[in-house]
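MODEL INPUT / OUTPUT PAIR
PAIR INDEX: 1
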Amino acid sequence: MPLSNHRPDPFTHAKRKREFRPTDGKHIPREQVIKHIDSTHAGTNLRLVPRIIRAPKKVRILAEKAGLDKRQTLKKQEQLVSRLVSKWVDHMISGMKEKELIAHNISKREERKLWLQFYNNFIDQFFLKKDSHITNKNGKLIFATKILNDPAVREERNAIITEMDQAISYTLPPKYIIERRDKKQKYSLRAWSLIRSGVNPEENLENEVQRILRRRYSRIGRPYTQEQVIQAKAVQICLAASIYADILERTKGENWISAYGLGMMQMHSVIEKRPRIEHEIRNLDKVEIKD
């Protein structure tokens, strides 16, 4: 059976790459923090599993109290599950190094490959198929699993993983954007113009996105539908991020795709307040776009 291609959402992945900063201002590598947690909290991995299993229901209850709609709830569920599964895999890799089941000097490429294998296996073989619970028997933690038979729970978990798989599309340039940029040189010329003016690329991207969100679309005779306006704004935001990527590529040598994703992530706190636009951005490759 081929390995699935599940990935933690880009926001979870970005948080995992950050370093921890204690009160004295010194940086502590993430691996050292995980090692410390492993050595001081016995059974952390075991306790994480039922937390992951309970996460969707917990978020659903809190979301209902907060008045979130189904789409917003699903997004929160996905983010929590992604974060907890990533934490579980981090602990697993750290524990295997501690027990010398894998080499301490394993290359980053091989460790990343192993990390994704664990992540995918947990999603496919456990989260989507099984349920679990932990009991305390005579002072010992007993971990038990059973086949997931509840159709409603199975449907909810499948929806969460689908949301997880789609989240990465938010940080990738849609094919339409690539094709439009290839046909029209004005976007490349715009980037050069901004570079010559000495503009701050982050500030320019934020100002441009705010302008797009405020813009009113109108025409005489045949008004734009709400769906057309949402799609137009989604396209313009992606184009703004592509110009941001042009600037970083030409001034700092950044990989263009990575720079595009970085720009979209930086603007997520603004865009997520417009859930229909964010949803449209994620699905631009699935719809027909007319110039």
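PAIR INDEX: 2
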Amino acid sequence: MQISKVRIQNFRSIHDLIIDFAESNVFIGTNGAGKSAIVDAIRIGLTRRWGQRGTGFTELDVHRPDEGGDPKTLPPVTIEIHFREPSAGAWDADMVADLDEIMTLDGGKNLISLRVTAPWNGDKESYDTIWQFLTPTGEPLTGKAQRATNLTGFFKYVPVFWLGALRDAADEFTPSGHWGRLLKNVKIPKELEAEVLKTLAEIDAKVIGADKRLSDIAALIGEATKVAIGEGLGGARLNMLPLAIEEMLKRSGVLMRHEDLRPWLPLDHQGQGLQSLAVIFLFQAAVLQQLAEVEEPGTEAVFVIEEPEVHLHPQAARALWERMAALAGQRIMTTHSPYFVQHVPLRDLKLVRLRGGRSHVSCIPQHIHSLLPWNDNVQKFVDGAKVQKIFSRDPDTGCVTTSEWFGEKLEDNLVSCFKDDADFEAKKGLIAELRHRSRYLPSAEEERELGFHGRRVRGEIFFARRWIIVEGVCEYLLLQAIGRAAGWPLDNHGVTVIDFQQSGSAAVYPALADAFNIPWDMILDADKAHINCRKQILDRGYREQDLKDRVVLHPKDYDLEACLVADGHEKLLREIMAEKGDKSNLNCPLEEFISRLRNRKTDYASSLAIKVAGDPELAKTMPKALVELIERLKKEG
């Protein structure tokens, strides 16, 4: 069984946070946003044995809305972890029977809810830790459900394996680390053990006999036995090799090399990146062994891994996701790496942001649910149009749900399924609202497109505070230059510029921004192409009021090049283009020159951006839409 939902209250930077969980969950965001607080709440809630002295939370864990708050009088830390059956009968029957006393039913599906609280106990001068299993409405179960044996039995089915960001190969590859726990289960046949020990004794004798000084050293040390009182003659001999298989295993280590031509070297002689990766795979091996020893049907691991990409170069960070996704169990991770994020499915990302001193989480939902009843006409439409991947029947409510955004044509098809209903107009409104709310959901094609075209921007954009969405690289370069000239570099203020023509579409980035609660602005040319861009956004389910004050056009019917010329920069642009090697740009007809600019956008824009970045006065004369946006953002801070 897997975690379906977590509610965390009054824990560190978290005031009150409810998070839905999937099989893979990757928490991203800036430092201090609360990612570690989220995973720590889950790890602590599912690994400690509550009620024992010295376990639980401290006053440093209590959320304080301001510096003057007293943790002892503030509301206590509360963590609720819910496990909900994905479909009726999906959980192992033996596990359900074993956990019957803490299992409840919710909408025909099994549910287990655990609440952990840590109120201050003035008499004990410490925080009590209280665990409770809950009803579907959040009330504590009573009677046998609160027996300590239930908690132990519950933990048995939800083993949590945690790997922190500050992992150290020197600690993990030791007898007390994961390495030692792996080796404890190594079984050597008795016959082989005897043969190995005999061979070791022979080699040991040869080594010692190779130099008389070794025998002399042993004889001198053996004099100690003549001083000590014993029942007979003693002595000493040197031991160069292990005396037992257990000792040999304890001395074992790992040698690695990057390629065939490189020498084998101990792990501690390798770089930090390779050591970090080795720890991850050691961790995986230890977990697999532990799970193999568990014979309880229904047991499913929860992996909590912080920053798996630590110390890795970009290519390795990108490749690592595939290995993390292959872990057999529920995966909860944090990362700061835009390279690691590039391969993570969009719906697995959970963006953590700090607002007003409190952590907030935004993500793309798996589905958008409606109150629209599923009927035979809907079933025929879905089967006939082969849109099962988009529309489905919610098993809990029997209503229409969607997993992707859908356009006006599919909206019309859905509407026709209810044309004979008495409340047709009401259902038509429900369909329009469903389409509007589904605009956040990327299609499978968009996922692929962003994965291919958006590799350059895909990772970093989710770490930004704000997005500016533009058509091409020219606007990208000029916005960066204007910001620098104004003393407000965009990167320093968490603003990312996305040029969608090279990495997606006009509609997908506004949808992603809204799904992750990232403010956005869009600047478009005023030529005929902008009509198509606007149509893409509206067809996705946006309404005109959604775009008000967000989408800005260049004046008249100008594109960027025409706008620059109209703003008085013809002479400067001709000089820039002439410097590129073609002097005819200085005097060719204006229409032809503008056409050349459009055909060599990067050439002129890169040079113009350099001049603009170093000249604040020139920057102020750039196209009004670009300048006014930077001025507004700078004013807003």
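PAIR 2 NOTE: The longest helix spans residues 272-293.
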